[in-house]
Amino acid sequence: MTSGAIDIGALQGSPQRRRRESLILRAFQLAAALSVLISAGIVFSLLGEAIVFLSNVDLSQLFAGGWYPRRGEFGIATIVTGTMVVTLVGMVVAAPLGLAAAVYLSEYAKPRVRRTVKPILEILAGIPSVVIGFFALTWISPEVIQRFFNDASAFNMAAAGLGVGILVTPLVASVAEDALRSVPQALREASVGMGARKRTTTLQIVLPAAVSGIVAAFIIGMSRAIGETMVVAIAAGGTGGSAFTVDPTGPGQTMTAAMTALAVGSDQVRGTDGTFQSLFFVGLLLFFITLTLNILSERFVRRVRQKY
């Protein structure tokens, strides 16, 4: 048996494999850089017109009692509050339903049932939002909201919020289920080995171990609810503008629906000075709200994430 120095080059693999891996790495780097450039391009395209809007509009108009941009009332608080109301109603629906579905699919459903139920659940995410908006207007509003609240209008933010919640539920369920299934099976076995029941193992072992992923699912769902347009534009009313309100049983307007109502039907947005530029200002504000949610989500996940 002969001994000799080990050639480092022999440990690096074949040159063809190294070239292939290098190409894949560069492709990933290009995709990451491209996404950053696209985001920066969106910000810069919005920023210019947003600055023009702020320079041409008196700041007092931003604190008006309503959002009526065609007559010079740019009450930003109106559409921000409407967005938060619809999002809150939607998450009240999506958070418990999505988490319950995720727990069932991850902890209780048999593999065959999981393979059947999960695609059916995710079908909801593929339904066009305009269909959900029409359903919210023609059934949820008269059969649910107006039945429990006699003074509710036909167009109301509560019906829009319930419709948004239906759309967001599959997203929350899918992400939360992935988080639950990533919990090591050894933790479940150790809990059962100590005599814990299935319910105790799920509530006190699995859910705390997956809390970072569950919270991430909620924040992703919230971002999706904030960005929803068609459901709110159809079911919430306020297409011509909206007064400031926090009453979910009345009509209102969100940021995305406000942009849609102002720009739809024409390539020229008509109104007072700053009406057209207000679209860019609202879009920029919406971008930063979503970005803030994503940053907070990432920091929270990093802080509470458990590595096994």
Write the layout of secondary structure elements.
Blueprint: H1 8-11, H2 15-56, E1 66-68, E2 73-74, H3 76-108, H4 111-126, H5 129-148, H6 157-181, H7 185-193, H8 198-209, H9 211-227, H10 230-235, E3 242-243, H11 255-263, H12 275-304
Antiparallel strand pairs: 1-2, 1-3
Helix pairs in contact: 2-12, 3-6, 3-9, 4-6, 5-6, 6-9, 7-8, 9-12, 11-12
Q: Which characteristics define this entry?
A:
3-stranded antiparallel beta sheet, mainly alpha, MetI-like fold, 2% strand, 2 domains, 308 residues
Structure notes:
With 308 residues, the chain is mostly helical. The chain has two domains: 45 residues; 245 residues, MetI-like fold. Helix content is 72%, strand content 2%. The protein contains twelve helices and three strands, in the order H-H-E-E-H-H-H-H-H-H-H-H-E-H-H. The protein has a three-stranded antiparallel β-sheet with strand order 2-1-3. The longest helix is centred in the N-terminal third of the chain and has 42 residues. The chain is globular. The mean pLDDT is 86.
